[in-house]
Prior knowledge:
- The chain is mostly beta strands.
- It has a single domain (16-68), classed as SH3 Domains (SH3 type barrels).
- 0% of the residues lie in helices and 45% in strands.
- The protein contains no helices and 7 strands.
- The strands form 2 sheets. Strands 6-5-4-1-7 form a 5-stranded antiparallel beta sheet, with no helix packed on it.
Amino acid sequence: MPKDANGTELNAGDNVTLIKDLKVKGAGATLKRGTMVKNIKLTDDDKEIEGKIDKMGVIVLKTEFLKKA
């Protein structure tokens, strides 16, 4: 079961926020701290989730940079 930076379990459909500014490889953009990631989906890797970010689409993020909203 994936867990966020605080150790809280994450479930499919949860909303999470970023706890750190992250550079997006290939997009030339930076996701700012506090950005909302909506309706996450769990992946095969417990350290990664898929989520939708406004104006960017679906992106894969490491759970160590996320906090459950």
